[in-house]
Amino acid sequence: MERSSAVAVVVVAFLIGLLTSEIAAEIAQNSTEFYRIGRRRSPPQSLCAQLIEPSGYSCSELTIQTKDGYLLGLQRVSSRSGDLRTQQGPPVLLQHGLFMAGDAWFLNSPEESLGFVLADEGFDVWVGSVRGTRWSHGHVSLSEEDKEFWDWSWQELALFDLSEMIRYIYSTRSSKVFVVGHSQGTIMSLAALTQPDIAELVEAAALFCPISYLEHITSKFALRMVNMHVDQMILAMGIHQLNFRSEWGVNLLDSICDGHVDCNDLLTSITGKNCCFNNSRVDLYLDYEPHPTSAKNLHHLFQMIRKGTFSQYDYGLLKNLRLYGQLKPPAFDLSLIPESLPLLMACGGNDDLADMTDFHHTLKELQSTPELLYLENYGHIDFIVSVKSKEDLHDPVIRFFRSWGKSSSS
C-alpha cells in the first residue's frame, strides 16, 4: 500500500509541472523559488489596492453573480489621468488563462502590461477573474471545501462566467464590448461567441495563443501526462480543487524536482521556448501565480487532446445521454460565430500548446477571415509578460480595436 501511495504522489507531482505552465514553469529556468510557490504570502483580497492603484491608476472593485451562483470579481480601471465616474472610452474586457487571474494583465511595468496600456490609451478597462481564483468571491451557497464547488470546467467558465461579465459590462455601458483572451481565455471566448445572445454584445475580439482544438500540441511533457491519464487518476483520488498554495500543493511542487524531473528544462518541454520573459520580476510573479482551478477543468482539457474535438464535457455514454440527449457531448460549432464579428488572432512560432495545425483547423471552421499576427520568436507565456509586448503585440491590438470601434456605442 505504501508503494502504491508513493507512485500516486509521483504521478500527481508530474502533473503539477504541466498545470503550472502558465507562469511557474517559466520561473523554473531562473530560480529555485519555483519549488516554493505555495510558501509565498497570499496577496490581500483586493486586486485594485494590491496591484493597480499603487501604479497611479483609478480602479474599482465589483462583484457579479453567475446564473449558477458563483460570485466573480470584476475590476474597472482607467488611466492615471482618468476618472471612473466619467469614463467614456470603449469598454474592453481582459480574460486570463489557466491557473491565472486578472492580475496577469498587470504583472509588468505600466509600459509593458496590457491592462495599463489600454487604460492609458483611453479604453474603459474591465478585468475578469473566473470562479475559484483568489480575486473571485465564492458562491451564494457552496463553500470552497465542498466538492460541488469545483464541479465545473472551461465549459461553465465560457457559458456562465465570461458570458455574465460581457452582459454586465454591456448593460452598464450600453455599448458593445471588446474582448481580449489569452490561452484558456481564448477557449472560453470562442465557445461563448458561438452563442448568438453573447456574440451580439461583442464589438471585436483579440485572441492570444488561440485554442479551440488541442489534438496536435507538441508539448512532450503535456502529451506524456495525457497518455498516462493523470487527470483521471487525480479525480479517482478524490481531488477536486487544484491549489498549489495549499499544503497538498506545496508538497507536490517540492516533489517535482526531487529526482523526478529536470526543472531546468521544464519550461521548454511544456510551453516551448519563450523569448522575452522578464527575469527581474520573478518574485512579483510568484506573489500572484498560480491561482486554483478544478480537476474537472484539467480533465476536460485533456479530453480535447485525446479526442481532437472542441466539445462540451464528456461524462461517458449514459450520463451524456441523460444530460445532452445524445451519446457524445455536443460540439461547439465555430461556424456559429458571426462572419461580421471582427477577430484578431495572435500566434507564436515557439508555442507548443497552441499548435499551428490546430490553429488552421480553427480557421477552416470560422465563417470570417481573422486578422492574423504571427510572432515567430514568441512562446506561450510571452503573450502576457514579454518585455517587448508593446510594439510586438499591444500596438497592433489597439490599432485593430480602433479600426472597428466606430460602432461601439450601438
Automatic annotation (TrEMBL):
Keyword set, alphabetical order: Glycoprotein, Hydrolase, Lipid degradation, Lipid metabolism, Signal
Tell me which InterPro entries the record gives. Answer: AB_hydrolase_fold, AB_hydrolase_lipase, Lipase_euk
Q: In its UniProt record, which GO terms are filed under biological process?
A: lipid catabolic process
Q: Signal peptide: which range, if any?
A: 1-25
Name the Gene Ontology molecular function terms of this record.
hydrolase activity, acting on ester bonds
Q: Ranges for the Partial AB-hydrolase lipase domain?
A: 49-108
Active site residues of this protein: S183, D351, H380
| Homology family | Belongs to the AB hydrolase superfamily. Lipase family.
**How is this protein named in the record?**
Lipase
Q: What is the source species?
A: Malus baccata
